[in-house]
Amino acid sequence: MLKIANHHCYSHPLPEGHRFPMAKYELIPAQLLHEGTATAGSFFEPQLASFETITLAHEPQYCRHLLDLTLDPAMVRRIGFPLSHQLVARELRIVQGTVDGCLYAMENGVSFNVAGGTHHAGADWGEGFCLLNDQAVAAAYLIDESICRQVLIIDLDVHQGNGTAQIFEGKPSVFTFSVHGERNFPFRKERSDLDVGLTDGIGDDAYLSLLADKLNEVFNMVRPDFVFYQAGVDVLETDKLGKLALTKEGCFRRDELVFQSCRSAGVPVQVSMGGGYSAHIKDIVDAHCNTFKAAVRIYD
Question: Which residues form the Histone deacetylase domain (predicted)?
């Protein structure tokens, strides 16, 4: 049975320019229920992550300023959202949803967070609409609690997981693997354990062939006992911020490759949704829901 962290995060007002992309977080659960991919019992609503939890991956001073809404104005501009207590609470709930999802994944093989994938947040910074890095915090939690010895983070968003790379630089218990558009944001890349920078316009066949090879290489090299998957759908050819050219079918096959790799290795996987900025909200929601469908196909 799928277990999916859901947050009802957007009941408070957002700035006009952010309402459209954020609408997907309300629409994805509704679509999953409508299609029968999930049931009401699939969803759980997490609590707020504690200060002690978030500081497993983030610097305490940054976290204090974030929680107190006292971040430097330049940092707030870097994040891209005007800060509010509601927004910070949303982020804390997303982080805890990913932490809780790890434990569900260990029971069921796979779990999801309807939001998350906030991979641009580094140890002491927020960036690109990311305040806290949910998968980095959860990975640090698994290691800190001695639940896992070796974690693999697979980041297939069109943008490099720069915050995740920075947080785990020099920490061999977490292997960071990012496949992203080389000429896309962030323009100053951090160094993941394995970075694959793609040329603009790459399509389904070339992307999937490369990904299959790299997944095989990484699983053989790392031999993880837990996987995090950042499943951004901004790789679509319809995406306004991406520069790749995957179709919805290609994106679905991408997800299947990741789940097949995890299933074959006998390793649980937690999935956070990441980015998606196509002009039509239907394209975004369909692609995200396809990630859930891919998991059902592999794990049921």
Answer: 18-290
**What does each C-alpha distance from 148 to 65, 141, 173, 175 come to in angstroms?**
31, 9, 9, 13
* Torsion sign over Cα 83, 84, 85, 88: negative
**pLDDT tens digit sequence for 134-159:** 999 999 999 999 999 999 999 999 99
Rounded to whole angstroms, how far apart are CA atoms 119 and 274?
8
Residue 224: is the preceding peptide bond cis (ω within 30°)?
no
For the chain, state the CA radius of gyration: 17
Q: Which of 299, 247, 251 is nearest to 274 (CA)?
A: 251
What is the domain-level CATH number for residue 264? Answer: 3.40.800.20
| Three-class SS state of 270 | strand
User: Which domain range does residue 158 map to?
Assistant: 4-299
Query: Nearest CA to 179 among 200, 197, 205?
Result: 197
Q: Looking at the annotation, which residues are catalytic?
A: 120
Coil, helix or strand at residue 37:
coil
pLDDT in tens, 164-175: 999 999 999 999
Q: Which tens digit of pLDDT belongs to each residue from 80-113? A: 989 999 999 999 999 999 999 999 999 999 999 9
Count H helices, E strands: the chain?
11, 8
- Rounded to the nearest angstrom, the gap between the alpha carbon of residue 35 and the centroid of all alpha carbons in its chain is 23
Q: Are 71 and 34 in contact (CB under 8 A)?
A: no
User: Would you call 141 helix, strand, or coil by DSSP?
Assistant: helix
> What total of structural domains would you count in the chain?
1
Residue 7 pLDDT exceeds 90:
no
Please give the single-letter amino acid code of residue 66: L
Type of residue numbered 137: V
* The predicted structure's pLDDT at residue 195: 98
* Angle between helix 134-144 and 85-108 (nearest 10): 50
